[in-house]
Amino acid sequence: MLSTERARALARSLAWGRIALGTAALVVPGLPGWLFSGSDARLPANQALSRAMGGRDLSLGLGAVLAMRHDAPARGWIEAGALADAADVLATVLAWRELPRWGRLAIVLLASSGMAGGVVAARTMEPRAMAH
What we know:
Elements: H1 4-27, H2 30-37, H3 44-69, H4 75-94, H5 101-125
Helix pairs in contact: 1-3, 1-5, 2-3, 2-5, 3-4, 4-5
């Protein structure tokens, strides 16, 4: 089990990674879009989807970083990020055969790591409120 401080450091790392990925998707949507759609990443619809996912990740990451910076509860932000990563894994598995080989593997590995890290960090970084 992680110490509270190590769990917060893990959560902070996950959040900054999410911010970096989200920013990249917003600024250069063809880069992360290539993982999902290969050569079709330049299509306007795929770029719009990449930017939308980038906005999601940027928001989740910023929410977590700001909460931790202000000593506010951040567990919900980290859990939401883990849930978003679980959705990315599910979406990738459901479209497995239609996705580029390296892209689908990269997405499953990255999103699974984020999901697992988020679950571990969230459970350890802030204790659950005691029921009265």
